[in-house]
Amino acid sequence: MDRNYILNLQFTTNEQTKIVCPRCGVGKLACVPKSIFMKASAEIDYVDPESCDFVVSGILACTFEECRYPISFAGIASTEPAYDQSPSGWSYHDTLTPKFFFPPLPIFQIPKNTPSTIAEELNLSFSSFFNDTLSAGAHARNAVERFLDENGVSGEINAKNGNKTKLKLHRRIEIFKASEESLAMRLMAVKWLGNEAAHGGVLLKKDILDVYEVLSFVIDDIYVHRSRAVRTGEISKAIECKSK
Ligand SMILES: [Zn+2]
């Protein structure tokens, strides 16, 4: 998804967004007519409607006729004058700023064969992205923990007294580094930003987008590229056996 577009995501009720449908990947999302409900946060000033704040809810749906996948949203809205085809040449247009989507809007595409434990944390992160970046960062950090679970790095170790001791994320990434140096270096970057979230620091949307870019690369590398490498290797061997 376009980085600047998602950082400043706003849309109007009568135009298609640039958000590609997460289900079909063909259509774009657009407001469903008559699904939008707006209410002024205070008494409407009809002389100066631009001074009013509104809350809004509605449904976006895929523009591809055979899909029509719907996503609901809630957020805030403002109204501003804009040139149009009306008799006066202009009218007030509503600009909507979403704060929540359900189902969550995937900021990057999670590959289909990604383990559900990782996908669940990523979806929780996406669902917080527009309104609570610390929560989005904390869930992204959890996604790294689940990624290590799924890739053979235990979350605990046997202590000398026989008890199990929980390993910190930093240590787990170091263990992963022994076999996957390049990916581990990237996961460590996600961990640093995730620590900000865990300690109540400051995380901006652009920081979270950096995290998503890194995580998307790591996940694609394991669950798309290597998965295809294994599959095509098996196919090649099968073809070779047949031809002998
Ligand atoms: Zn669609």
UniProtKB/TrEMBL annotation:
<dbReference type="Pfam" id="PF13643">
    <property type="entry name" value="DUF4145"/>
</dbReference>
<feature type="domain" description="DUF4145">
    <location>
        <begin position="128"/>
        <end position="215"/>
    </location>
</feature>
<protein>
    <recommendedName>
        <fullName>DUF4145 domain-containing protein</fullName>
    </recommendedName>
</protein>
<dbReference type="InterPro" id="IPR025285">
    <property type="entry name" value="DUF4145"/>
</dbReference>
